[in-house]
Amino acid sequence: MRRMLAHISLIICMIALLSCEEQGKSYPSEGKVSIAYLQSLATERSMKITQDIYIEGCVVANDKLFEIEKALVIADDSGGMELKIDEEYINDIVPLFSHVRLRCSGLNIGREGAKLVIGAPPTGEYVVDRIASEEIFNYLTFTSNNPTAPTSATIDINDLDSRSVLRYARFEDMVLSRTEHGAKWCDMNEENEYRSTVRHFIHDSDTLRVVTSGGCYYASELIPTTECTLIGIIDWYEEDYALRITSHQVLH
């Protein structure tokens, strides 16, 4: 039922965005725009941006602890998007919580489920290709020399919808489901390698899915069972919303 409601919410949001476009809403052809504006443009599987526009935001997820790989997430007050980069150690060149400006002209945007992605024009089956590491600073510049974490939004589990995806958020007073006590963040596959795994945290009677990449540094750690605050990005994983913790922010 929850997955069905998530799909319905996504469809309603897309119809609303298209409706605004059809009513002749004026869009900028150059200058600074919001991530929400880019989301309104992404009505095709993949679309090249021709306007001379840019966004500014904070890097709220990257591969510092390998919670995600070959990508970083930029968020502003209106939403978030995933920037694909062909680089093994992105945090070495774009540290977590860097404040950046991304020039969008010449890049492609599209959607992976409910997730807005941006990168190089696609050459194959993917929505966008990864930007070559040596080319990333043709598009990305720093707007501050001091990486600082933005304020995370407090979101109610029941309020998660397509507008929440890739936002930087916190969930307070969370407790691991009793059925998962004693579990690690990730399970192992048949090759004895850790794989991406979903765990379930409870607040009152509501359940939050939390997904962890098998490649992250703490995949093998036991999950604490005491009440905690979880901070990260809202991801779209296996056709539903899930929190992806960033920088191992599990606060007690």
What keyword list fits this structure?
252 residues; mainly beta; OB fold (Dihydrolipoamide Acetyltransferase, E2P); ten-stranded mixed sheet; six-stranded mixed sheet; 3 helices; 38% strand; globular
Description:
This protein has 252 residues and is mainly β. The chain has 2 domains: 29-142, OB fold (Dihydrolipoamide Acetyltransferase, E2P) (Beta Barrel), CATH 2.40.50.200; 153-251, Beta Barrel (OB fold (Dihydrolipoamide Acetyltransferase, E2P)). Helix content is 13%, strand content 38%. It has helices spanning 2-22, 35-41, 90-93, and strands at residues 30-32, 46-48, 52-61, 71-76, 79-86, 99-103, 108-112, 115-119, 131-132, 140-142, 153-154, 168-176, 197-203, 206-212, 228-237, 240-251. Strand 15 and strand 16 form a beta hairpin. The longest helix has 21 residues, at 2-22. It is globular, with a radius of gyration of 18 Å. The two termini are 32 Å apart. 36% of the residues are buried.
